[in-house]
Amino acid sequence: MGTRHFVALSIGGIGLGVLGALEVLPPLPAHSAGAGLTAVAASTWQTDASVLGLAVARGRVYVGGRFTTVRPPGAPAGTREVTRTYLAAFDRRTGALDTAMNHDLNGFVWAVVASPDGSRVYVGGDFTRVDGLVRNRLAAFDTATGRLVASIAPRVSYRVKALAIGRTSLYFGGSFGLVNGVTRNRAAALSTVTGALLPWNPDADDDVYAIGVAADNSRVYLGGTFGTLRGTSRWAVGSVNTSTGALLPFPAASAVPLPTSTCVSRVKDIETSGSRVFFADAGDGRGCFDGTWAADVATGKLLWKSNCLGATEALAMVDGWLFKGSHAHSCPRTFADGSGTHFLLLQNPATGALGPWFPNTNGGPPTLVGPLVAASGGGDLWVGGDFTEVNGAGQQGLTRFTNLGADAAPLTPAVPTLSRPAIGQVQATVRASLDNDDVRLTYRLLRGATSTVVASTRVSSAFWSRPTVRLTDTTAPSRTTQSYRIEVSDGRRAVRGGYATVTVR
């Protein structure tokens, strides 16, 4: 497998640091986008309802949710459907349905996680039966055979919504109060070796939405709507011991505001990577904290906090970059100008600054939030949720982006506005174009039917910042009528706009 190096980029005050060598799928020439991902969605099967859980393991992507059928890419809703009740698998490289993975669950799947070696996939949710066998809200499948793992069959009393693995422990959270008849309020752990219930017991007083295990297995992070852990105040987030669930110091928790009558912010997802841990928040109330934040694992200190508004539901590390699925609509110093809702974004994990990668989805029913979950196997990004469109084209529930295939083309430039600043000179003015996986584009001023290049410049732009581009022809023949158009290129693809005409002084 190849490696790709990414250098510092900046746009409108957004800085992106050097991230070094990253292992990816066999690459094309590097895009300027974070993680090398093209913004053009790769062909992938769809679902007929929400995707809530994703995991990548051994060449497959395991998908859980509210859906009961799946269908090929491009197929309209209600056509060419194949039954898959709440759980399906797809080929990681092609996006095609894995026909061998076909199980009948009797309830929603809310979470999916793969073992570190990829040999198992664990699913949690509302189900109580899998293929007619008792599996009370938690089950495991062997990825080699697709069969249920007999030893993983705990009796969980209510919904499992979050899963994470740390060494030989499977941590899970949700809305339950009992596991195997033993009190475990909304968080518990099993041995992945024997399936036995472990002593780990953080004892949350309300729902747990997210669980993450530090990369060094030193602690477990919980997120949700709880107000206490083990009877001690811990609003929406906490750090606990991996074997007992005892509370650990976590000063970065101050990033989540305490609830008020006008603002309730909850932790919806947790992503751990190396020495850092990242959190996604969603808030109820105007201006309530909806963004992302990062903490140092060893010290528990807050590293940065991004205050974008628009609930953040999903996080995933993609070759050293932090993906977030949200319906961001206002970010300080970026698109606070009202440039619209954006559901797919990358962040620099060192600073939280937005990266230059801007594909998009819509927000579909029932939540209208759009992306709800994400996963990466390296060199790709899988996104699931409530959306029904990706980049303006029909695609329901599931999509993926890779570092293979064509990148996004620049937006065709407008017809330029022409002026005559001096004898023998023509100045062309046009609004900067957009490219969803490149921020620095080359603009050329073309003269006449032969498209002679008479001026060029490079300008950075993004959907929230489209400056004016000015190009001047200083060799225009005096007292002649000339036509001009603009060409914009990302270095691989070039597009040309229409002509404007002027009589040269």
UniProtKB/TrEMBL annotation:
For this protein, the record's InterPro entries field holds: Quinoprotein_ADH-like_sf
Q: Which organism is it from?
A: Kribbella aluminosa
State the name under which the record lists this protein.
Answer: Fibronectin type III domain-containing protein
- Give the organism's phylogenetic lineage: Bacteria, Bacillati, Actinomycetota, Actinomycetes, Propionibacteriales
